[in-house]
Amino acid sequence: MLDRSIQPFIREPEQLEVLSPERRVMPNGIPLYILNAGDNEVVRIDLLMEGGRWQQTQRLQALFTNRMLREGTRCYSAAAIAEKLDYYGAWLELSSSSEYAYITLYSLNKYLPETLDIFESIVKEPLFPEKELGVIVDNNIQQFLVNSSKVDFLAHRTLINAVYGDKHPCGQLVQEEDYHLINPSVLQSFYDRYYHSGNCSIYLSGKVSEDTIRRVEVIFGSEPFGKGFLRPEKSIYVPVTSPGKRFFAERADAMQSAVRIGMISLDRRHPDYMKARVLVTLLGGYFGSRLMSNIREEKGYTYGISAGIMPYPDSGLFVINTETANEFVEPLIKEVYHEIDRLQNVLVSNEELAMVRNYMLGDMCRSYESAFSLADAWIFIHTSGLSNSYVMDAVDAVKTVTPDEIRELASQHLCKETLKEVVSGKKMS
């Protein structure tokens, strides 16, 4: 019989085997990355275009260009696209980031010819119909207005603007009037500039056969498509941080306040980044973290508090975020600085560091357990300009970081004087 009163032995993963994608170059020059893994007859196609917020000429241009691809093409109406994808059991995802647009199709292999036909039309011949665009813009305006009444939304906007400034893409805050400036011609111009075969890469993951590769190559790799064929130049933006320490976004009727504490931090290529991730996880990156143990479990100031580094091109945003009752804002912030002081002055115990290591290694194992999660990982690596050894380097950093290094990293990269404090909620007298 299993004795459930005895804790199972914790064993650290000895090594992490991560499948690397096969790289091919199609006749028209598009790189094709293939991750053939998994037993289910499902394939995922990720088509990446290098064009995001960093390249747009007005706010929301990149977002709505990508979002509108499914709303009508030369061959299919929006209703027909939705109906056919549903009929064939396929799923389409559209998203955009700082520098990339992502068009993702999940399809059963047996219906791939039919779903690829729709996918090709979405990528190559969208129409950006005015009626559908108007409906989507109106819906987004309503969602924006709802979000604008939430303290966490206001706190995040205030923080990134304070840290990056109005001239930086991160710090440029969308306003309601920006939605009204979106029209089909604005989207068409962005599409024409960035959605073409000279600015594209494709990832295939799942159960990928040679027939699947051939079909993708015939549709997307045999001839150039799009206009211009010029790759975007690398855009460099310099953050201009606002002076001052405390920023307040008032919401007079708020029952509780959102608190954000943050600053510009390491980008993903910095030599300290991987071991700094261990430091941030220790501070507030998992349920047993220092911030959770103190501020949630011991003090009871909040239901949850977390810390992390949000990656952006050429920088990262270190941020601590939580919500608390209005009267607990000041003691909560005091305890955050207390935990930073402890990390800078007191060596973390080997037992606590081992627990963080096991958590992070287990999380990595989950991140690379399926073909689709592997595709996500390699897309992140390639779009971030990281080396192919990134995964193993990350594992090595987690395994080898020492208590002395944690203390040194905390002293170097958790500068209390640089941290900006943002509170959104009801002003307390």
Explain how this protein is built.
The protein is α+β, with helices and mostly antiparallel strands and 429 residues long. The chain folds into 2 domains: 22-221, Metalloenzyme, LuxS/M16 peptidase-like (Cytochrome Bc1 Complex, Chain A, domain 1, 2-Layer Sandwich), CATH 3.30.830; 246-425, Cytochrome Bc1 Complex, Chain A, domain 1 (2-Layer Sandwich). The chain has 15 helices and 11 strands. It has helices at 61-67, 78-87, 112-124, 130-147, 151-164, 176-180, 184-194, 210-221, 273-284, 290-298, 329-345, 350-367, 371-383, 390-400, 403-413; strands at 22-25, 31-36, 42-49, 91-96, 101-108, 200-206, 246-250, 256-265, 305-312, 315-325, 420-425. The strands form 2 sheets. It has a 6-stranded mixed beta sheet with strand order 1-2-6-3-5-4, with helices on both faces. A 5-stranded mixed beta sheet has the order 7-11-8-10-9, sandwiched between helices. Helix 9 (273-284) packs across helix 14, helix 10 packs antiparallel against helix 11 (329-345) and helix 11 (329-345) crosses helix 15 (403-413). The longest helix has 18 residues, at 130-147. The chain starts with 21 loop residues before the first strand and ends with a strand. The mean pLDDT is 94. GO terms for molecular function: metal ion binding. It comes from Bacteroides oleiciplenus YIT 12058. InterPro entries: Metalloenz_LuxS/M16 (IPR011249), MPP/UQCRC_Complex (IPR050361), Pept_M16_N (IPR011765), Peptidase_M16_C (IPR007863). This is Peptidase M16 C-terminal domain-containing protein. Residues 62-139 form the Peptidase M16 N-terminal domain.
